[in-house]
Amino acid sequence: MLRVGVHVSIAGSIAKSVERAETAGCNTFQIFSRNPRGWAFRDLDPGEAALFRENVERSGLYPPVDHMPYLPNLATGKAEFYEKSITTLTAELGRCGILGIPYLVTHLGHHLGEGIEIGRKRVIAAVNHALAEVDNDVILLLENTAGEKNGVGSKFEDIAAVMEGINARGRVGVCFDTCHAFGAGYELRTEEGIEDTVNRFDEILGEKSCMLIHLNDSKGELGSGLDRHEHIGLGKIGEEGFRHILSLPFFRSRPLICETPVDERRDDAGNIRVVRKLGGG
């Protein structure tokens, strides 16, 4: 059975996210552990954290996934923002441990015109610092990006270069985002293209490094560099593309998180139903 979920809100209490995920038909789910649009955050309430863990265990939804907030940039050369970004990454790793969340997803950031190599070195230093500060079993997942200007991590080779510099190699993995990969030029519309993309991933990063899939269609064309998510099957990858994607063990055997829109065309539960249908029930 496919493990499919969506990103759910923690409004009111982080423990309520589990019930929201159940209502949407998830058997895995993703959250922000705090307000994703600011730097400030409060410590987790021990009672709320305990209730979250209880709810996850009761529900059988697994794995729960945490995503880094929007503001951090692990590749920036702006000292104040870089330090804040490292502090946030370190804090999120700790929060995941308290909540019993096994995976934390992060984007690698933007080098702001200073060059991909400098950006990668900053990411490596930031990740090494954060992992050294936090002693737990949480795995940090590096997410591929869509090929936007100054982005770090659009190519599999970029992610591999970062991973090679990580001291605690067993504590990092990859989150593969279909919309981002398509935007960065990896073909996902045809059976041949998808197999070639997976083979390239395996050659460069090793298939076992991928621990999570962000399953999103794309509003942008192949190689457009656009990070704009669309409902499953309604974007440029299309239904046929996702039917092929969901036929491969690379995708079927991993948790699938949809970060798709909610609008008059379809809600979260609707996207989960479409994924299950295209994946064979």
Give a quick rundown of the structure.
The protein is of the alpha/beta class. About 40% of the residues lie in helices and about 15% in strands. The protein has ten helices and ten strands.
Overall description:
The chain is of the alpha/beta class. The chain has one domain (4-278): Divalent-metal-dependent TIM barrel enzymes (TIM Barrel). The chain is built from 10 helices and 10 strands. It has helices at 16-24, 46-59, 79-99, 116-133, 156-164, 178-183, 191-204, 238-245, 249-252, 268-278, and strands at 4-6, 29-31, 64-67, 103-107, 139-143, 172-177, 210-214, 217-218, 229-230, 256-258. Helix 2 links the parallel strand 2 (29-31) and strand 3. Helix 3 packs across helix 4 and helix 4 crosses helix 5 (156-164). The model has no long low-confidence stretch (mean pLDDT 97).
